[in-house]
Amino acid sequence: MNMASDSARPVPEELDRQECLRLIAPGGIGRIAFDDGEGPTVIPVNYAVDGESVVFRTSLEGRLNRSLLTAVPGGQVRAAFEVDAFQDSTHEGWSVLVRGGAKPLGAEEKERAVRVDPWAGGQREAWFRLTAMEVSGRRLRRP
């Protein structure tokens, strides 16, 4: 075992909830994971952070909207949301996972929600909020 090369490698560190939320606070692109009825699936979405919640939009006709709508008004669907940032050249970076309940936003909630500007064209009128029940993350950095 080459000790010099091992000591030069980035080491993983666990991130606390506050650091995780700070890292994802700028918004941008993340991935929402959910069960679409055919099994687990992951879809990229534009998002914004609102306190300890993640807000994102999708099309009314899309699989994400159909899968996250619930039959119980005010109900939530279990989902996960992941964001990461890595530098290939240094092998350093971080990854944050938010797990909780996703629910559609009503008209009044949309008016009060943080602004999310989708990159994709077309109508993105289905708004959702994923409320964080669990937030975890890891960072790779040089010692």
UniProtKB/TrEMBL annotation:
Pfam families: Pyridox_ox_2. It comes from the Bacteria. SUPFAM superfamilies: FMN-binding split barrel (SSF50475). This is Pyridoxamine 5'-phosphate oxidase family protein. It comes from Actinomadura nitritigenes.
